[in-house]
Amino acid sequence: MSFREDFFKLLNKLKRKENFAFVRYSDGEVFVMQNKKLVLSDNHVQAGEVRHNFGYSSQDHKEFIPEKHSFVREALLESYKYKDKDYFVGGICKGCDCPSKEFVGWMHEEYGNLDENYTYANLMVNANYPLFVNYFIPELSSRKNILVCNEEAKTDNLPFPVKHSFRVGKNCIVNNHHLIEDIKEYIDKENIEDHVFLFSASSLSEILIHKLHQHNKKNTYVDIGTTLHPYLGLDPARDYLRSYWSGTNHPDLYKECK
Q1: Cα distances (angstroms) measured from residue 242 to each of 62, 83, 123, 252
Q2: Where do the domains of the chain lie?
């Protein structure tokens, strides 16, 4: 199916209140799964042996050191290879000009036989972001929502209700794995069913969604990435966000995965 069609496939499941999970793996997740050093800091990004002279705000800082954090790689690989009829895995596409497309062959090999549950990592961003804002977000207004997000996020301006939030701090991909058991306990204790869990916690989102979907399939679990940053008072660091909310043109806002 196409980039747009896959978006509406998940949107329609949300509309029908059919529970599902959506995880997404782009270049950052791939570097971890390939056991390469990954550092996002104020003034540089290191991916494997390559150092880039640009950085991210403190909300996006992360550090994966293969010699120290092998448990993260193992958990991320498990989440990527997990199969279930209602578990949708977003990977990197090979049809556009993104440099990340060099990983496509490796990702397909690790996943195994591609099936109808294998989709696009960018399903809710870039050219699909206006669809996310105009169609996906309104569906949340009548749902019971749980948010997993940065400790600095403010939920007052969200256009939908949040029943409860779990917070992550810096380098959450390493430091906040306790949330697996914390959220499981919350689900069991409060008898949580037919809720929508929204995850904005870097690569930890995939690990959490995998473990929670295994634990309880009676909820919906979605990695929303940075899509809600403008509502949460967080840095809209991604070009597609800046372009959409400022009303300016940027190629990412027209980019469709293939």
Answers
A1: 22, 35, 18, 10
A2: 3-29+70-254
- pLDDT band with cut points at 50, 70 and 90 for residue 12: very high
* pLDDT over threshold 90, residue 97: no
Residue in the structure block whose two tokens are 């990197």: 92
Helix (H) or strand (E) holding 3: helix 3-15
Cα–Cα dist 248/197, whole Å = 31
- Cβ burial, residue 217 (10 Å; 0-12/13-18/19+): middle
Alpha carbon distance 54, 159 (integer Å): 32
CA distance 113 to 44: 37
Answer yes or no: are the C-beta atoms of 26 and 102 closer than 8 Å. no
pLDDT for residue 81 is more than 70: yes
For the entire predicted model, the pTM comes to: 0.94
Region 141-156: what's the mean pLDDT? Answer: 97
Across-strand partners of 145? 196
Burial of residue 179 (CB within 10 Å: 0-12, 13-18, 19+) is: buried
